[in-house]
């Protein structure tokens, strides 16, 4: 906390590199947010690193010893035990060599053994038995029964843990399954089929959930353990019990492409169209990850291909976005709505075009997808393809009848967007397809206005070559030549003048290109305009000639040129 107090947790591993000093370790742990996981060596002033197998909290072993040595029936709470260990854990007056902080490293128990035994000693019945069973037998727990639980019997065999290092839980596992983890969760996570079978024989709660809602069945499906899934289902596991995000076991099998487990779950009553909190179904996940095997299984179980998630995406939207053509074919063949719209009105074709998924686009168009569907901003697939410079897709859309002149909400046609982005090949393609070169967009700007304003000199040249009008005026009377002069694009001015742009054109405020050149102080462009016949005595709306503007803006060289 703010006072640098450290809370020790007894349920976790901490990787401690031998070369790390205490200060480095604490700083690194603070940055990772794992400061609560501190190895006991940090408090014992010991420099010996225990290694990944035995890097456990020795207080866990202390608890086990304290609890094992207590008289039968005098149970202690975890809080009381924490206080007791904190008070006695590093005291030098405890000379008993059996205490864990004096145990030889190689003889120390592994984490799982200490954790399970400690948990059972604190809650000897309720941890592993359902509440109704716990109440019945809690009064019958005697010294001999507890001794038998420690010395033999099925329960001990179930919870007797292996020495294999691969069974030591990782930091990630502990973070995922932290809080309310039972021995059943843990054994399922380790894939211990026989141990799970023995534990289930003691009538444990097969649907117990961790703090984040994970059941043993959810863990088994995540790890793709069909044998464990079958075992849990045979013992009554709920195939539809979801985690805190609404993910059911079938969601995880679809995410993993595990059709074997998915079939097992469906046979045991799993809902084929279950939706998690954001509306995603197993079909969405199979489409996202290109698992045709799972998708075909879901189709055979009458999964709805048109269910929408929170933003309105169907499985076909997802498959089209990722370009999974086999899933696109499967979905379109099973009655998926080709022109289904998201909340922003985008169709699967919009998404495939945006991502450049040519094969998916081709199949959607062949199947009858509308090439002129408009999204909320008025963009058709051709608008998107033109703006992104996707030549082959533009060509494909035009072949299937996409309109050249549809305006967006702001009035832009595909040619406007291609000119604005500088995509020369697409400008040629659209012009050859007879797109309107003078189509008025927002404020009556033509594609040539956009190119001149944004300094796209090559685009200006191409549009002029294709026949664009160099004297088209927008709503304030500005021509492309005005905009090119204002931009300071010498080549664009030259191209426009070569194609007979009107050097005398004036805006509604009376401004000519020469006024703008004098105001900007662009001597090169002004000379070109004068050479083209620009009149220098014309007054703008404020009553200023180009010379007066140059003087007001202190463009001395321009003023000298105009006076001469």
From TrEMBL:
Known SMART domains for this protein?
ANK
Keywords of the record, alphabetical order, are:
ANK repeat, Repeat
Name the SUPFAM superfamilies for this protein. Ankyrin repeat, Protein kinase-like (PK-like)
- Protein's name according to its UniProt entry: Ankyrin repeat and kinase domain containing 1
Q: Where is the Protein kinase domain?
A: 1-168
Query: GO biological process: any one?
Result: regulation of cell cycle process
The residue intervals holding the ANK repeats read 179-211, 212-244, 245-277, 278-310, 311-343, 344-376, 377-409, 410-442, 443-475, 476-508, 509-541
Q: Name one GO molecular function term.
A: protein kinase activity
* A GO CC term attached to the entry: cell projection
